Amino acid sequence: MPRLEIDINKIKHNAVVLKELFAAKGISVTAVIKGVTGSPEIAQAIVECGISTIAVSLIQDIKKMKESGVKAEFLLTRLPMHSEAAKVVRYADISLNSEISTIKLLSEHSLKLGKRHKVVVMIELGDLREGVLPEDADLIVDQILLLKGVELYGIGANLACFGGVKPSEDKMIELSQTADHLEEKYKIKLPMISGGNSANYEWFLSTNTIGNINNLRIGEAILLGRETLHRNKIPKLYTDAFTLICEVIESKVKPSVPYGEICQNAFGDIPEFTDIGAINRVIIGIGEQDINTKAVTPRIHAEVIGASSDHLILHSENPIEVGCEIEFDITYSALLRLSISPYVNKVFV
Ligand SMILES: *Cc1c(COP(=O)(O)O)cnc(C)c1O
Fold it and tell me: Which domain CATH number covers 313?
């Protein structure tokens, strides 16, 4: 306790439904499992669904999956650091990139291993996280094509991550046209034109012009069954493949408002509460150290009213006994923290 129950069949179901959906318009799925720190069990299950490229943001997670015997093509989602270039080419097959100095290092290290590392150049389309500006794409491609240790494997874009910018029809056409331009100008074929992430679901459903986009990197939709522009459930997918289960450590009827002289709380905030009289206050043995408390929802009639680093406080409609187990739905940020925490047991059901 606490434990994270993982229903691997629900994840497999989600992976298969999405793979088939996107394949209908010629788009392959790269499964992004950084949200579960590259769990080898989950990676293996997804590979068994016929998705052959697995992506994470940390090289350590690729190493872990390989050492556990997962056979897949591995893609690194976070731009490589100079200091990890040697490890990147050793463990990852493909990496997303935007800096020529880094790509040069990847090439050098790759040559030493007698390999050719695949590089996908990220194009900035307005979300303002990673990527070269579209007008600078030629500049970086000119230089990549001179390097012997890397293969220009494609281009990609990432939206709705930092700036919350929607992957619209216009943005996807811009990416597609950038790929056309590069293929024509340099007489090359780009095997991967990767349009985005789970936020591209709406675009995919509504567009008539996929253009030459042939890949999406999908994480949250596989793991939690939601698109990420509005966090709507995707039809036919499970949103409850993960269940957080924790134990009640105190349960009492107490006032709804703290009493005494109010100063700062554990996190340096001065909290405010509305007086609704005495309520069932239930304390759960988990806290901000292992979850983002805004990112968990109890499956009983109760509301999260706050947390400190190791206590989570609920207002429950009904009294609950100490020692009871409470189940919670979780969002992506809670999933990430729970997955990383050594204090939370992961149980496959
Ligand atoms: C995390 C990440 C993804 C996956 O995003 P989801 O919203 O989970 O589908 C895709 N691409 C990049 C570059 C990422 O960092």
Answer: 2.40.30
Three-class secondary structure of residue 104 per DSSP: helix
* Ligand 1 nearest atom to the CA of residue 223, by list position: 8
pLDDT tens-digit profile of 212-256? 999 999 999 999 999 999 999 999 999 999 999 999 999 999 999
Domain count for the chain, please give it: 2
Binding site membership of 127 for ligand 1 (Cβ less than 6 Å): no
Q: Are 38 and 175 contained in the same domain?
A: yes
Nearest CA to ligand 1 atom 6: 219
Q: Write the burial class of residue 86 (CB in 10 Å: 0-12 exposed, 13-18 middle, 19+ buried).
A: middle
Note whether 190 and 338 are same-domain residues: no
- Catalytic sites, residue numbers: 34
27: burial class by Cβ within 10 Å (0-12, 13-18, 19+)? buried
Dihedral angle sign, alpha carbons of residues 245, 250, 251, 253 = negative
